[in-house]
Here is the input.
Amino acid sequence: MRTPKKWNLDAQRRIRKLLELTQNISPFMERGPQDNEWELGLAFLSEAEMTDVYFKHKGEKRATDVLSFPSVDFHFNQGLLGEILICMPVLKQQAKERGITDEMEMMILVTHGFLHLLGFDHEKSKKEAKFMAELESALLSAIVPKSWVKDSKGKCLEGLIERVHSCN
Here is the structure.
């Protein structure tokens, strides 16, 4: 059984890879530290904890899978991207429903939350949702182990935006 410490270490390792892959995206190029010293907070919450946070920020009393809180400009310019919160019970349930491992689901949620920290928002418009979904898919394709690939054409794990919009 994976301990919270192991979950966090695995997620942080994957986040470092995301940072490497996204250094040329405009938020990084325009501001922030030049020495690639970026940081972000990551927390795995219980269902009750996520329900409380979600209610405070969205006004609905339910747990969601992932929430991101980007830093204000001052902190972003100092290299702090923000914080990603992941609800472990929801992560595990979604993984089970999708027929994928918990680790795969964690990578999907981390990637999605990471893009929100960079300022992407699929809820702004259809165009933004399409662009963010493509970026999410490209990042997942670049960072997941080959054993996670779905088919012989190299189609990777379905990203969170793609999953929601395809209603699979």
